[in-house]
Amino acid sequence: MISARMRQADAGRTRSSASLRSLARTRGLLVVLFVVLVAAFAAGLWGTILRPAAYEVQGQVVARAAPNLLLVRHEAIAGLGMSAMETMAVSVTPDQLAPLDLEPGDRVRLAVRPRGDDIVLVWIERLGGRLRPPSDGRRAPSGALLPATPQN
Question: How many structural domains does the chain have?
Answer without folding.
Answer: 2
